[in-house]
Write a structure and sequence with these properties.
mainly alpha, 8 helices, 82% helix
Amino acid sequence: MVLRAGLRLTWLLLGLFAFGIAIAAMIQASIGIPPWDVLAQGLSRTTGMSFGLVTNLIGLVVLLFWIPLRQRAGVGTVINVLLVGPAAEFGLHVIPQPDHLLWQILLFTGGLLLLACTTAIYLAPQLGPGPRDGLMTGLHGRTGWPIWAIRAGIEITVLIIGYVLGGQVGAGTLAQALLIGPLVHQTLPFFERIYASTIDRS
């Protein structure tokens, strides 16, 4: 029992830490910030509040949307808030900014693929999703719509609002908004199977 609990927590921590690294890689690629950051940037410019404060407030508002979806927070939700930011900050310090477009594209692509995989990894133990992923899984549970469609719909909606408010949009932003949903749709069942087999052997 203790071993299983340790494995679940290990999956969660590794997934969230690597999730932060993925975000840092995409930022360092400098070809477009993620849609949620476009929204935060747009709101920051509109309201005059700091980017960090707006990001935290967005997370709180998203958690309020969990209530009608009957989505429950867990230890993973709390650790998400505490770990992803420092992990991304660490990634920004250790991942250099490429000075050639080809390397920028490769770094962004690697970050996007890592983001999709780590989303699935930290969701697999079912210890509680982060605010934004909880919105995705909550809508999936209530509507039965495919994960990819819900994730893509959320990302595109957030992107449009952020752009209207003055957030910066690049090619990478559009790529993430369109691709992250289908990618998570593929990675989630794959890593859920790996996780289940790991737990069964413990």
